[in-house]
Amino acid sequence: QVQLVESGGGLVQPGGSLRLSCVASGRIFGINAMNWYRQAPGKQRELVATITGIGSTKYAESVKGRFTISRDDAKNTMFLQMNNLKPEDTAVYYCNADIKVAPGRYSNYWGQGTQVTVSS
Predict the structure, then answer these.
(1) CA dihedral for 41, 45, 47, 53, sign (positive or negative)
(2) What are the backbone dihedrals phi and psi of residue 112, each rounded to the nearest 5 degrees, phi first?
């Protein structure tokens, strides 16, 4: 069984930084695209950042220049470095990934989420 586990969330003041991690474990043959999503209270879940299997990245306009997504394939881990955080970044952040679970077969997985709160 494959699991994604996020960590690194917490309470930070506006202008501060946090680094989120997402570790994939289980029977994994490889990982394709990995994504960070977030969901604020009363809002729909939104895509924050994507990193492909070859390392190409894409960001939501609202986080460009402030957030950086990266991955360490040797450790099946993805990161989200968040700088210059704003109150509107407050949300539950979710890890999502397309994982190769058998030869020629990919499945999509979600983590349980980690809370990020930006407040003075």
Answers:
(1) positive
(2) -85, -15
CA distance 53 to 35: 11
CA–CA separation, 14 and 88 (whole Å) = 10
DSSP string covering 53-110, please?
TT--EEE-GGGTTTEEEEEEGGGTEEEEEE-S--GGG-EEEEEEEEEEEETTEEEEEE
Structure tokens at 10: 């917490």
Along the 120 residues of the chain, how does pLDDT read in single tens digits?
899 999 999 999 999 999 999 999 999 999 999 999 999 999 999 999 999 999 999 999 999 999 999 999 999 999 999 999 999 999 999 999 999 999 999 999 999 999 999 999
